[in-house]
Amino acid sequence: MKSFLLAALVLVSAHASAESQIASLVNFESTAARPNTEQENITSILSGSLEHITPSNISIYGGFSFILGETFETGVNIGARFYSAAPAFQFFPGIPIWTFVGGGVSFYDETTYYPEVGFRIATSDVSRIDVFARILNSSSDIYDRHIMVGAGLTF
Q1: What are phi and psi for residue 19, nearest 5 degrees?
Q2: Which terminus of the chain is less hemmed in, N or C, by CB atoms within 10 Å?
Q3: Is 106 exposed, middle or buried (0-12, 13-18, 19+ CB in 10 A)?
Q4: Which residues form the signal peptide (predicted)?
């Protein structure tokens, strides 16, 4: 219980800092490629998380995931991303685009690890759109070797 209270205190203290930001992150991923096995497969993943973005362009996120596929399953996910220090490019004035690399862990029936790459597009002063790709890795054939593409909204 003490560690939970300490984590909550650190989270609230970080939120009070004007240099860092805590935001809601909602992602939807769909399977772009999967192995040909007779096991059940993942069709898509919907997740809701909280993201803490530090001034050094590193973000940490965690929340709940829902697997939509041949069976419905819930889990917990945590991860981290490293964003480019400055916008990588800009298609339209006032809409910067950053690149990121990261990774995470999802705790379903079997633990699943994933690296990810993507773009974060600033749609307004308070919201961002993420476009990303992940490769799921697990000791279970249900989750292993799935390539997921997705989009997320941070607000």
Answers
A1: -90, -20
A2: N
A3: buried
A4: 1-18
Per residue in 107-127, pLDDT (tens digit) is 998 899 999 999 999 988 889
Tell me if residue 100 falls in helix, strand or coil.
Answer: strand
Q: Strands of 34-110 (E only): list them.
A: 42-53, 58-69, 73-83, 89-92, 95-107
State both tokens at 105.
């862990």
Question: Are the C-beta atoms of 129 and 150 separated by less than 8 Å?
Answer: no
Tally of domains in the chain: 1
Provide the H-helix boundaries in the chain.
2-16
The reported pTM is 0.81
- Residues 6 or more apart whose Cβ sits within 8 Å of residue 15: 22
Q: Which domain holds residue 57?
A: 20-154
CB 52 within 8 A of CB 22: yes
